[in-house]
Amino acid sequence: MTETTHEVIAELRGQVGCITLNRPRALNALSLGMVRELMAVLLDWQKNDQVLGVAIRGSNKEGAFGAFCAGGDIRFLHQAGTVGNPQIEDFFTEEYALNHLIHNFGKPYIAFMDGIVMGGGMGISQGASLRVVTERTKMAMPETIIGLFPDVGGGYFLSRCPGRVGEWLALSGETIGAADAIAFKLADGFLPADQQAGLWDALGAQSFASGAAVQQWVESKMIASGACQVSARGQIDQYFSLPDVPTIVAALEGAGDDWARATAALLRKRSPLMLHVVLEQIRRARTMDLADDLRMERDMVRHCFYLRPGQSETLEGIRALAVDKDQSPRWNPARIEDVAPELVQQFFKSPWPAHAHPLAALR
């Protein structure tokens, strides 16, 4: 059985539901239609006893694998946010509900995280029961580059990385590879990229006694991933445990080594306001369960577009990166040191009473 739309291909092959994200020219960036398609097929397979597990992959211009998912469709977000299209509200509500479903799917959900895995791509893979990376994996939560924050449950899964790695990844938006992803608890195992196609085909061709057997079989094919690439773990913990963003940046700028100075320079390019918001997000999320974190992030993303009409950091960040492509966002406030604490706290006030929250049903 194959269900094909333009952007999502869902096939029941043997005892495994196989999903291919099929929007390669956009690096499989998630549209509202894709979110709805994924939700519908997963809800169907969740209650179908014939489906023992689910596997998901991306595609590139040449075929399967190569690029998992580069995030949400930021051009849509810019257009919708600029004209007040209510589908922007639907997109975030439904995307976060999809993220929650994946974390609580109840059957093996195996994510083949080959190539680019960023933003919304992390949202549909971090809840997987098995997260498989390759030598081509480029993983990041780069939202501060566009004046946003690491959403899709980013507060939840980044805050659970070792030490202060979560703060570093969330604030800097830095990209990591397979070995670091495994070391930082953002992936479970390594598979050489050229072995994915054979494994994928075999998944749908053989008989399994249970869902657990499906996952164990994939796990048996994984190999050691090599050495960690990030050699600055001690420095990450030292600087990113400091109490606030100005203190972190001042300490990095005052250090004598290249890594610290380069990291400070990177942070200076991000939205100053959103750096403050993101640090607060990650630290609040450490004590939250996933549902509460997603509700918090739903509040935050509403404020990213509507808290300051005409002054959205997110619309400005997307404009500079993807619309006008001048790479010169006009952040407001312009400096890390000029962000008022009261403005930061407004991002964490819910615009809804608890009973009317768009994600009230999440448990």
Automatic annotation (TrEMBL):
The keyword Hydrolase is assigned to this record: yes
Boundaries of every Enoyl-CoA hydratase/isomerase domain copy: 16-348
CDD domains: crotonase-like
Cleavable signal peptide: none
Top-rank lineage group of the source organism: Bacteria
Sorted UniProt keywords: Hydrolase
Keyword Hydrolase: yes
UniProt xrefs under Pfam families: ECH_2 (PF16113)
Name of this protein: Enoyl-CoA hydratase/isomerase family protein
Species of origin: Diaphorobacter limosus
